Amino acid sequence: MRSVDSSQVCVTIKITNKLTNEEITVQEAQFSTSAGILADERFKIEMAFQDGDDYTTSAAHDPVAIMYDNNNFHLGTSTTFPEYLTYCLDTDESDYVCHMKRSVSPYDHVGHIKCQWTILAGENDEPEDPGDVPEIDEPGELLGKSWTGMLTIDQALDLPVMVDQAYVQYSFWSATGLETFTTLNIETVTHSPKFDYTYKHHIPVVTQEFIDYLKKPMYFYLYVSPYAKTSGLQPISTSNATIAKNLGYAASAKDDPSAKINELTHENEFLKHLCEEKDKEIHRLKAELFGYTKEDSDSSARKKLASAKEMDAAVDSMPSGDAAGS
Questions:
Q1: Is a pLDDT exceeding 60 seen at residue 177?
Q2: Residue 269 burial by CB count (10 A; 0-12/13-18/19+): exposed, middle or buried?
Q3: Which residue windows are coiled coil (predicted)?
Q4: If residue 322 lies in a helix (H) or strand (E), which one and from where to where?
Q5: Closest alpha carbon to 82 in 222, 218, 175, 219
Q6: Which region holds residue 244: left if phi is over 0, alpha if psi is between -120 and 50, else beta?
Q7: Model confidence over 249-270: pLDDT tens digits?
Q8: pLDDT averaged over the chain?
């Protein structure tokens, strides 16, 4: 697949969780590592079946955990145009929220990143008291001067997946050239991770290279780890009837009542989890439907009110004789 901000083509694997229909993409190296662990676990289970032993895969090596919970993948990219920084201007309030496109095809909308630049007179100044920021009419006037800008990355918004880890990465000019910067990795279960990241970027002496750099697009990359609830899933083990069937063996649960009870308990927990998720989805859809209905109702009422006002205005503008005759 081709990256949204590059002409370079790289191998990317798309993985879909059929329980939630959530999709992630991982690089070839990440996938190979995870696939290797899963292959080892399959070998251990098959050997246990052949030897008549019991074996249970550790929670850390569960396929859902391996693919979803242990991989921070590149969800999307926000593209900004920082040329206004050459004029020592702050980010306009209307541009605080940046659209984010999926990192791979179909490059659809996957949320927003809220960020802004504040220009400061020097490294020791703060947004509350930015100091004497120079007025620049032409980018060339900035040559030879110092430049300081504080970047704030507030949060990501409206992500299509629930995440339990997230961070933003970007590159910016420094005294030694282009440098990569990364926010803290936020470990919170949410659709809108909050970073509260600030960094003062200081250029001691502005060069033409820096001015040229600001004329190019600037990218913010969001990396996330999807939240994967595995507590309600049946463990991968020799007592798992589905695993046994798929591998061509008989599950040990048939001969072990306690194992069968354990299997049914996990299945019950999983079904409860599915019901909870469906209930949440139903409530969300009901709320959306109510919103649309209310909007239509309000719109209809506004139209009737506007029509009544127009009628009153027309009557008021008529001569008194015409109004009486009508």
A1: yes
A2: middle
A3: 261-288
A4: helix 320-325
A5: 218
A6: alpha
A7: 876 544 455 556 666 776 677 6
A8: 82
- Identify the residue whose tokens are 């300081």: 148
- Full-model pTM: 0.68
Q: Does the pLDDT value for residue 116 go beyond 90?
A: yes
Q: Which residue, among 65, 68, 77, has the nearest Cα to 24 in the 3D structure?
A: 68
| Token pair of 61 as six digits | 């090596």
Question: 158, 111 in Cβ contact below 8 A?
Answer: yes
Contact status, residue 156 vs residue 215, Cβ threshold 8 Å: no
CA–CA dist 56, 43 (Å, integer): 12
- With CA atoms as reference, report the closest residue to 72 among 26, 127, 113: 26
DSSP H stretches of helix in the chain: 28-51, 63-64, 208-214, 241-247, 257-317, 320-325
Instruction: Compute the half-sphere exposure of residue 110: CA atoms within 13 Å on the CB side of its CA.
Output: 25
Residue ranges per domain, the chain?
77-226, 258-313
Q: How far is CA 207 from the centre of its chain?
A: 35
Overall residue count recorded for the chain in this entry: 326
